[in-house]
Amino acid sequence: MRILQAILLLSSLISTLSTGKGPVGLTTITQRYALIADSSLDALLIIDVEMGGIVGHLILHDRQYDLSGSDYDKVVGGKWSDVDKDGWMDPTGVSTCPSCNFVFVTSSKLKQFYKIRLDRPLKEMANNDDGSADFSSFSQSEWSAITAWPDATSTERNLRMTTIMGDGDMGFVVDLNLGIYSFDPFEDDHPHEADVQLFLPANKLSNTPRLSGCNMDASGSKLIVTSKSEVIIVHAKHPEKKVVVVNVSDLCAEDG
Hints:
With 256 residues, this protein is mainly beta. It has three helices and 16 strands. The protein is globular and about 45 Å long. The termini are far apart.
């Protein structure tokens, strides 16, 4: 349980503070495994948090767009703007759920939302009948961009983190400028679309909108959203209920 709590804490910190490159979005698979979106590698990584190390991966670009050694050194060293990243997805947020045979990924660079289809849920890959984990098929997963997006042009759109309720009933995406969107994760009638709706606009959530992080609370009923200076708690299925806004900027101020 302590490992799972540490993962959730790390997820909140990453989604709130990350504005650069490297490991950005994070979601739990099981108490032992976590899924990370790494924009420096343009990949999703499955991490064994007990033993350490990467146990599964998915490269998010055609391998013809792999960087050369010198360019890769620049990216890892933080000089992202010096590198031509044509063909890269550049992931930001990532989400899945225990019964989901898919993963959703946001890209703030491309202002896109992607659905990655799996042959079985990641939780099942982590718990085979013999007790072992096998993520080998993850690297062969295919994805498509979700093109339907309401109330926003591509210029306005600035997608950040995403999360899905534990039962898979509803998913959420945070837009830096526009607010919180909800979507139906299991919508498969139109494979390149999602039933995306504006859940709550930014101007009804925060004095300083610019929303970035989101995660479900331990009960699965509350959506926790972060901005630069606030933590916002919303009822996940009833946004009309009271929204709690906690200003945390004072906690970050220097003494005196």
